[in-house]
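[audit] Reproducing an earlier prediction to check determinism. Same input, same settings, fresh worker. If the tokens differ from the archived copy the diff job will pick it up downstream; this log only records the rerun itself.
[audit] input (263 residues):
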Amino acid sequence: MEMSPDQSADPAAEGAAGQTTPTQYMDDLQDSLARLSTLATGLLPLEDSLTRVAEYAVRAIPGAEGAGLTLLEENRSDTIVSTADFVARVDDIQYSLGQGPCISAARDRQTVMSGSLGGDQRWPQFGSRVARLGVHSVVSLPLVTDEGVLGAMNVYAHDKNAFTADAGRLGELFTVPAAIAVQNAQVLAQTKRLASQLQVALSSRGVIERAIGIMMSRSGGTEAEALDRLRTLSQHQHEKLPVVAQSIVREAVRRAQARRTDR
């Protein structure tokens, strides 16, 4: 666990005596883990599932006021969610600069903590800007599975030194099942996307085949010749092949309906 030089590891720094006990912290963690285990990722859009995970993290980690979660995917834009508006603003700064605790946590595959972002020399540009927003403390946790780093989760607080070493350890306990929940949500979302793409492809293929049949009935020739003519039309009209095919099918239907009306 990587901590800033001034990050307190003393449990007494969590607040005034008697506010929250270690037992209550464990109860909050167990409650968050229970909620995580029943998260129906298949019934929610990906962003909603990730937001729920981030919300549970806020409850699980002592001192947290808001959290953001970033899911990394190849050949797709990163999916970024947050539980509060101030978290979204902070993470926007981080990713626009290309530096910050989330980026470090995902790159180094280890928990990163800071209790004074404005003076943290690891991310001088990021820290100074978020400190002006009144955000001073962060715990960033990589989401790691056997297949690699899925992304990272940032948990923020406005006060300085809001997170102790114990908070970081509780966060690490939470992120083990959280990473699995995120991976499940990602796999389900990818499966849905592939199914949708396959359905579109099958529909497009059917339309193209119907258009080829119409062209063959009008001018004769082979299926290959009709397909070549369809591709030529697509190029000349600067439209995708299924779009041109659909217009041919619609026109054929319109003519057929007009002939029936004339009879």
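[audit] rerun output stored. Observation attached for the diff report: The two ends are 82 Å apart (CA to CA).
[audit] end
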